[in-house]
Amino acid sequence: MKKRLCLLIAAGGLWANMSFADTPAEVRVAYSGGSQVLMLAKADGSLDKALNSKVKWVQFASGADALNYFASNAIDIANFGSSPATAGIVRKLPVEIIGVSGVIASYERLIGKDGIAKINDIEGKRVAYPPNSTAQYALEAAISVNKLDRSKITLLPLRPAEMVAAWKRGDIDAGYVWAPFAQELEASGGHQVFATKDLQKDGYLIYNNYVVRKAFAEQYPEAVTAFLRVHQQKVDEFRKDPERAAAIVAKEVGAPVTTAANTLGGLEYPTLAQQGTADWLGNGTQTSNSGIGKALTKTSSFLAGIGEIRKRDIPANWDTAIESRYIRDAAVAAQ
């Protein structure tokens, strides 16, 4: 059912008047099972209120699953890694990046067993990673920038839960993965060897992003803008009281509070205003040369190098892959 109405949204103690045309009856939002600020909106129902729609929360295990959901038209918006998002765009899925939900710092990391003290020590070892993920991208980048001999490393593609089981059986020596699985490896005798933030000095921007179906965004642009406003509200809530936020998220995803706190604190959160600049999504005029545009170029080159995508499929520019107007509209509404 389509309807036109006026909606009031609480924003930092102020009330913003938003007009919604053709409000969707349901918005299907996909998320991983890990801790993320968006879970605060799931817990208190604030996203449903902001969108004036019923939110259907769709959980997935990996970015590859999110791509499959988009391909089958089963979701509208998803929060997942930059690497699988890039793969989906190159494969011409009708989606676009609308925002950065968090820059990966210590949230994803390499966990090693005794005998692996530094990244160079993984030569001669068995190292697992979740395929088609930001963790795989970070691991391969770490191997490259540290000039390791890849032929001396046994790389094993395993889903996170499979990685934990392989670790406990003694089948692997190290694993590059995100929370809560990283903590499970640490609790079973592992220790941090390398974190994704260590790649930032080498020019790697690895992040989780919000991706939307283009048809949904075109039909419901104000809903997309409202979604991003809620994201910022929840980031602000987390920053104001990290302990309270971690407790809420932990309960929502069924994780220990320490795990939720570690995960939420392991991401960096650019503001809406920052994201609408050349450093991130661009201001609408320099999309391909924006920070995210350059990251897409670098990521797609990596994916082509490992055979995940075909080099000839990489587009000449990213003008249709990134849409910053929603984040810029959300930033204006937040002022």
From TrEMBL:
<dbReference type="InterPro" id="IPR001638">
    <property type="entry name" value="Solute-binding_3/MltF_N"/>
</dbReference>
<keyword id="KW-0732">Signal</keyword>
<dbReference type="Pfam" id="PF04069">
    <property type="entry name" value="OpuAC"/>
</dbReference>
<dbReference type="GO" id="GO:0042597">
    <property type="term" value="C:periplasmic space"/>
</dbReference>
<dbReference type="InterPro" id="IPR007210">
    <property type="entry name" value="ABC_Gly_betaine_transp_sub-bd"/>
</dbReference>
<feature type="signal peptide">
    <location>
        <begin position="1"/>
        <end position="21"/>
    </location>
</feature>
<comment type="similarity">
    <text>Belongs to the bacterial solute-binding protein SsuA/TauA family.</text>
</comment>
<feature type="domain" description="Solute-binding protein family 3/N-terminal">
    <location>
        <begin position="26"/>
        <end position="242"/>
    </location>
</feature>
<dbReference type="GO" id="GO:0043190">
    <property type="term" value="C:ATP-binding cassette (ABC) transporter complex"/>
</dbReference>
<dbReference type="GO" id="GO:0042918">
    <property type="term" value="P:alkanesulfonate transmembrane transport"/>
</dbReference>
<dbReference type="GO" id="GO:0022857">
    <property type="term" value="F:transmembrane transporter activity"/>
</dbReference>
<protein>
    <submittedName>
        <fullName>Taurine ABC transporter substrate-binding protein</fullName>
    </submittedName>
</protein>
